[in-house]
Specification:
- This protein is of the alpha/beta class.
- It has 2 domains: 39 residues, no CATH class; 83 residues, Hect, E3 ligase catalytic domain (Hect, E3 ligase catalytic fold).
- The chain has 6 helices and 4 strands.
- The chain has a 4-stranded mixed sheet with strand order 1-2-4-3, with helices on one face.
- A hairpin with a 4-residue loop joins strand 3 and strand 4.
- The model has no long low-confidence stretch (mean pLDDT 88).
- Keywords: Ligase, Transferase, Ubl conjugation pathway.
- InterPro entries: E3A/B/C-like (IPR044611), HECT_dom (IPR000569), Hect_E3_ubiquitin_ligase (IPR035983).
- It catalyses: S-ubiquitinyl-[E2 ubiquitin-conjugating enzyme]-L-cysteine + [acceptor protein]-L-lysine = [E2 ubiquitin-conjugating enzyme]-L-cysteine + N(6)-ubiquitinyl-[acceptor protein]-L-lysine.
Length: 142
């Protein structure tokens, strides 16, 4: 029985996916050659592939741009007050909501800009907050 289980596990986890994995690996290596990875230490490669782990949310606030709002507007002040009170996981979820990814860009938040825009709704009380991930824009009704 042990031999059967070992052979079955090997088949499911290795043999059955060998061809699709080889095809994937060949395509992946065409776009991201492994030879260039040797110049990175493992921790550096992780930062290159996944982005930095340290999130400085104050930089995000400083880099934010506004359309039909001013940084001094009470809604914007309230937004940032509430944002900074959120737990780390919720802040990452917000980043995913605005940009489509909860990972920081490789270069960090220093070069990441997102926009908070008033969508100029006729009745803002009947509107929801939404986002355009392509343009990193948060539509925040008044």
């Amino acid at each position: 029985r042990n031999e059967f289980v070992d052979l079955y596990v090997n088949y499911v986890l290795n043999e059955s996916i060998r061809k699709p994995f080889e095809d994937f690996m060949r395509g992946f290596l065409r776009g991201c050659p492994a030879e260039s990875w040797t110049m990175f230490l493992p921790a550096e490669l992780q930062v290159v592939l996944l982005g930095p782990k340290n999130y400085n949310w104050n930089v995000l606030e400083k880099r934010a741009r506004y359309r039909h709002y001013e940084a001094s507007h009470q809604i914007i002040k309230d937004f940032w007050t509430m944002f900074h009170k959120l737990p780390e996981e919720k802040k990452k979820m917000f980043l995913a909501f605005v940009s489509g990814s909860d990972q920081l860009p490789v270069y960090g938040l220093e070069y990441f800009t997102f926009v908070i825009e008033d969508p100029k709704c006729e009745n803002p009380d009947n509107s929801y907050t939404s986002a355009s991930t392509c343009f990193c824009t948060l539509f925040l009704p008044r």
